[in-house]
Structures are given as C-alpha cells and as structure tokens.
C-alpha cells in the first residue's frame, strides 16, 4: 500500500549530515557534563533526598543517551533495534485502509505490539484484542474521534505481550482523506515508552518519600503537604538539584528565582512542568535568561532534560531569537511534549541591551521608577542600573497582578527580596494553582 504522503503533504527533506553531527557532539558533551555533576554531587544516595537526586540523574542520562541514538539514526539511516532498557524504542508505523479493511504495519510495529513478524497485521477492529480490558475504552475513543471527527490521536495505552508482560505504548495518528475529503484510512506512529514511564515513576516515588508522611488537617484526609501551601512560601523545583542555577549572578545582573509547586489536592494529579534557567551565551559575558512551562502529565524529569538541551544550544552559539525553533526541533526527538509557553532573553552587560523571543504568550516585564509594563511588540530594549526584569511561567493570568506590584518591587533591595514579594503575591492570588515560577534579574551596573 502506498504511503499517505502526497502532493498536499510533502515529505520533509532529511537534515544535513553536518548539522546532525554537530547535534550529536553537543548531546554527548552535555551527557558528559551531567554525568560529571552527578559524580560530584554530595551524598551516597542512602537518604531520601539522595535517592530522589539519583533517580533524576538517571532519568536525564537515560534520555540523553537515547537522544544520541536517535540522532545517530538520522545520520546513519536504519539500524538494528536499540539496546535493552532503552527509554525510547524505535518508532513503528501503520496505516489502516477503511475501504479495503487492509492494514500495513512496519517491521518495528510488530515488535512493539509483541506480534510475530510473519503474522497478519491486525485491523482496527482487532487491535483492542491486544489491550487490557480497562484500557480498551480509551483506545476506542481515540480511534473513533479520529475517524469520525477528524481529531488527531495523541495518547497512551497498554498492550499485553505473549507471556502476559504489559508494555505502555504512545500512539500518535491522524485521518488520511481522499480526493472528496472523506476519510479513506488512518495513519499512526507508535513507540514503546514503558522504560521512560518506569524511570519517571522512580523519580516521583523518591520525591514523595522525601516529603515524608502526609500531615492531618481537620477530619478529612489530606495529601502530603507541598512546599508553597502557605502564601508566599517558595521551594525548589523537583529538578533543581540536577542543573544548578547561578545564584552568584551573571555579569551586570543580580539574579533570583521563586518556584511555587502545585497546591495540595486529594483529587488532582500534580504536574511539575514550570522551569527557569540562566546561563552564558557563547562568545562573551552575555547571559541567557529563560522561563517556560512544559505541558502534560509526568513532566517531573522533562524540565531537567529541556534545560540541559537549552544550555547546550546556548553554548553552541544559538541566539535567543533562534531558540523557539531549535528547542521545538530538539523535543521532536524525545517523548516530551512541545513547549507552548516559553520566554528566552539575551542580555549584554556592556551595552545593557536586552533581546527576547518567545513561544506562546509570555513577555518579559520591566519594572523601573516604581512602574511596570510588558515589553511585547519591541525588537529590543536598553536597560538601566536599578531596573528589574521579571520572567514568569505557569501563571499566565497573573500578568496584571505582577505589574501591580511595581511600587512594592521599587523598594526591594535585591533580586531575592523581589522574588519573595512576587512569590507571596502569586500564592495569595491563585491558591488553586498548578506549579509556577519566576526569574528576576536586577541590573547592577
């Protein structure tokens, strides 16, 4: 059966060999840096905090190793299946023809679904036979929404391999239309993400053990208290121990951050997607300041991987204006979701010039002489000593609230004082928040 790619869906040109080789070099350098930080970290991993840090280090190193393998596939072409224990398996694909009821599977998909390569590919009606009963409604709903309403598929379900082993599969698909606009077939890609989910659960479980037993409050049950439950109380994000933030500052800047975890809830699954970073840009004293939010569940280890990639891109000379596209390209080679909300600022201390680019809606906020405003719509700005720059993520509705803090921030003697003021305001204005973070940079000279 021919591919669904046609004139109205041109196939992407393969990346240049040199550009892929450069990405491989950056990835391997970053993996070595992360491993060095892991080995230099204090503790033997016998205490709860040490176990949590070790699990998070392992997750980041696993993902960087798999990214290296995927980039090598782009450079070298098809290769044998990845090593055992890989977090990301090779991707399998399938197309189901609705007119003939035929199915066309790639060789990788047979292995992912635990089927013998010589067997007949299953039709869409037969596919649920591989899925546990409790996951079948989810799969049926995804396929029905795709075929009837034309909605893309993006979800996970489990499959049962011969012998009873359960594997978690991530499926992405879309309808393929004929010349009349009717759905002729369904195309999908699938990959086994079992090891990735297992590794992330290890991070989550070790983090939960670090928090200790859940306190009681009143007659009803309560989940373990999250740092930040009390107004204004900031905490360290779950990935904080992996990639260190330069608390000593950067040339010409006094830096501080505040992180507010998800508010405790007995019914809501917590998501940890907010992230921030400050690091050097290649070629001098220029600093990259960035914040963002990684959507979706199980994002605990995702920010650490994203920040590591961001630092690698910055070290390789990528400019802030190029980062939204480069970061999006990097994430396409991982199991992480795309960043829909992020802000990337470059600051040159010699000229005090600020430039920025963003994915989604966030804009940098500038506080000067007791007033604050957003910097959207400008190509750049020149800052002054005493100016306070604020980047935020995870609290899009809080912009007006943050700007209203200008008189109080004018009295802050340091970026750290400003971070405390902002954290308290965010916690008081949105007690039901998901996680959020802010990065403050005060111009010192």
UniProtKB/TrEMBL annotation:
Gene3D superfamilies for this protein: 2.10.70.100, PAS domain, PPM-type phosphatase domain
SUPFAM superfamilies listed in its UniProt record: PYP-like sensor domain (PAS domain)
Domain PAC positions: 153-205
Region (Disordered): 1-25, 31-50, 202-247
Feature: compositional bias, Low complexity: 211-222
Protein name according to UniProt: PAS domain-containing protein
Organism: Streptomyces olivaceus
